[in-house]
Design goal:
Blueprint (H helix, E strand, L loop, with lengths): L2 E7 L7 H10 L7 E7 L2 E7 L13 E3 L4 E9 L2 H10 L9 H12 L9 E9 L5 E5 L8 E5 L2 E5 L2 H7 L8 H9 L15 E2 L4 E5 L5 E5 L16 H18 L7 E4 L4 H12 L6 E7 L10 H11 L2 E7 L1 H13 L9 H12 L5 E3 L4 H5 L5 H5 L6 H9 L21 H11 L6 H13 L1 H13 L4 E3 L5 H9 L2 H5 L5 H7 L5 H5 L8 H4 L3 H11 L2 H6 L4 H9 L12 H14 L4
Parallel strand pairs: 13-14, 13-16, 14-15, 16-17
Antiparallel strand pairs: 1-3, 1-9, 2-3, 4-5, 5-6, 6-7, 7-11, 8-9, 8-10, 11-12
Helix pairs in contact: 1-4, 2-3, 6-17, 6-19, 7-8, 9-10, 10-16, 13-14, 13-15, 14-15, 15-16, 22-25
Length: 594
């Protein structure tokens, strides 16, 4: 829930309160229910509130704890806040609200930066110590909640979204060649701390940053699962692992029902979202609101999976809502979805999520979503290729399997002024894969995906698109205890049954067989994938705009080649190559970057 921002000065000056106000106002879609500002000394904090827990004004932010002389802003949800509040009360703390934000402040007062290790949830927060002038920034273990940073001489600004930082002004908006290389190589994934803008960085997941009043800082990495087998698990059977996964998922789903408002489910009809519905039904949830979206067919490709979502909704008796989007609505929705992106995202379903979130937000404020299961339980088709690679060849196999194009191919795509002089994306993967703590090539690939690709593609996509409508999406498959369990689960159990085998086995305990055994589906948006007329018109307009010509990111011959056959040029992973370059340019223009 919510959006946060702020500024700390290191040069003896006061924060630019007008800039913090602009940043706060740009976060309004993330928090339509309240607005607050706080400033003391060299620090200013801004907040937009989405009321999920403690709907009274006692939960308003920025929040100050007079006893601890700390003030803070918080985005997300600590699912075990009631248990922590009881523990803190036993330690002598007194509470004036029923909010999880106050629990975060009291927990910091009691345990310092180690408080994050006690939180079960998704969060980003900033806490200012009034006595010392120190600022503490933190992000949850899986990076579900974002936190962007912009340094300038004498100051640091931070916000829940990149557009919020732009609204504050004074940001270096030149392109970062390393990040651009990753964008073009890694299916638009740009690993923290980078973004495509040289002047904006992001706090890595599972990180606490302590910023001193003079500008020095240090980071604490507080969580990292091990992808090696444990001796105590050696005797576990496939059924034991199935039961352990089902129990852990059941706990994760139950945790994410904590709210003072109703919680719904985004139901695609696939295994992952259907499992969430099934487990909520097992928990006794009645009249559960479920939501599905579909699109008109294009290029002979079906655009909806309603037959499956309808089947699950009927089986569990949910209050189901179905949204069918005509193709001409996709093109008109593009710009709004791109405006909601903190970073350029090329996945077709970004528009789907934005359109779906718009409708869902009219019914509920909180939903559970099935994102993350494929990355955690090896559900994608490329994971078997990784499994056959030796540990020593893990990086090479990953790049060959997952990258959109090789470094040598970029010389004909990017102009020399923005092209990195060596394979920086490949180097990143090699360095990550070489780290200890992953037993096999598949373990190393799953670790890389969980720590980087998952955070900066599907998780970011869902957060940006839902929060743009004041809708909080919770992702039980990214419960950190479930992720830890999946990390040590034997690779063969994850790869079995065509992928996600152990999860499918769990699904057979609670779902109709046809849902578990159906072909794997995706979230298709054919009008984007096949460059339908109105979408292609928007693409041509963006790539021929004066801003694009002045920017000069892409080689003219390459752009002309793609535009001559818009639906024919595919990256190595099968993505539409024209859409990849056009999306970046549209994103830059939408956010006023020249």
């Amino acid at each position: 829930m919510c959006g946060l921002c702020g500024e700390i000065r290191f040069d003896g000056g006061r924060p630019d309160l007008a800039a913090v106000e602009r940043m706060t106002d740009r976060l309004a879609p993330r928090g339509p229910d309240g607005r607050g500002l706080w400033s003391q000394g060299a620090v200013a904090l801004g907040h937009r509130r989405l009321k999920i827990i403690d709907l009274s004004e006692c939960g308003a932010q920025p929040m100050t704890d007079p006893a601890g002389r700390i003030s803070g802003v918080f985005n997300g949800c600590v699912y075990n806040y009631k248990e922590l509040r009881a523990e803190l009360r036993g330690l002598g703390h007194r509470f004036f609200s029923g909010s999880d934000t106050e629990v975060v402040l009291k927990a910091y007062q009691q345990w310092g930066t180690a408080c994050v290790e006690r939180f079960y949830g998704m969060f980003a927060f900033a806490i200012a110590e009034q006595a010392t002038g120190r600022l503490v920034l933190a992000r949850d273990r899986l990076g579900i909640k974002p936190l962007y940073l912009a340094h300038a001489p004498g100051r640091l600004r931070f916000a829940s979204s990149l557009p919020s930082l732009l609204a504050g002004g004074g940001v270096d908006t030149s392109l970062d060649p390393v990040a651009l290389h990753q964008y073009m190589s890694w299916h638009a994934t740009v690993a923290a701390p980078r973004t495509v803008l040289a002047g904006v960085r992001k706090l890595p997941a599972a990180t606490v940053r302590v910023v001193e009043p003079d500008g020095r800082h240090h980071d604490i990495r507080y969580w990292q699962p091990s992808y090696t087998r444990r001796p105590e698990d050696a005797g576990l059977s496939a059924d034991d692992w199935r039961d352990a996964v089902l129990d852990a998922l059941r706990t994760a789903v139950r945790r994410r029902m904590v709210a003072d408002v109703p919680v719904g489910v985004l139901l695609s009809g696939g295994l992952d979202s259907s499992l969430i519905v099934a487990l909520l039904a097992d928990e006794g949830q009645r009249d559960l609101a479920t939501f599905s979206v579909g699109f008109e067919s294009e290029g002979g490709e079906e655009g909806d999976e309603f037959r499956w979502s309808d089947l699950v909704a009927r089986h569990f008796g949910t209050a189901h809502h179905q949204l069918m989007v005509p193709s001409d609505r996709v093109s008109t929705a593009l710009d709004a979805a791109i405006a909601a992106m903190s970073e350029p995202m090329i996945s077709h379903d970004v528009v789907a999520f934005h359109l779906l979130a718009e409708q869902v937000a009219k019914e509920v404020k909180v939903v559970q979503s099935g994102q993350g299961a494929d990355e955690v339980f090896a559900g994608y088709h490329w994971y078997p290729d990784m499994a056959v690679a030796s540990r020593e060849r893990a990086a090479e196999a990953y790049a060959t399997t997952y990258f959109d194009r090789a470094h040598t191919d970029l010389t004909g795509v990017l102009r020399p002024s923005v092209l990195a002089d060596h394979d920086v994306s490949g180097r990143f993967v090699r360095e990550h894969m070489a780290r200890p703590g992953a037993e096999t090539a598949l373990d190393a690939a799953l670790r890389l995906d969980a720590e980087v690709m998952l955070v900066d593609d599907p998780v970011k996509r869902v957060d940006n698109m839902t929060m743009d409508w004041g809708l909080e999406a919770r992702v039980p498959f990214l419960d950190h205890e479930l992720v830890e369990l999946a990390a040590v689960c034997p690779p063969e159990l994850k790869l079995s049954d065509g992928g996600k085998g152990v999860l499918k086995a769990a699904g057979r305990r609670v779902l109709p067989a046809e849902v578990v055994d159906r072909p794997k589906g995706y979230f298709p948006v054919p009008a984007v994938k096949h460059m339908a007329g109105p979408v292609l018109g928007r693409v041509r307009e963006a790539l021929s705009a004066p801003e694009a010509r002045a920017r000069g990111v892409f080689e003219d011959a390459y752009v002309a080649e793609l535009l001559s056959a818009p639906d024919e040029h595919r990256t190595r992973r099968g993505a539409n190559a024209l859409w990849q370059i056009a999306l970046l340019e549209i994103w830059l223009q939408t956010h006023g970057i020249r």
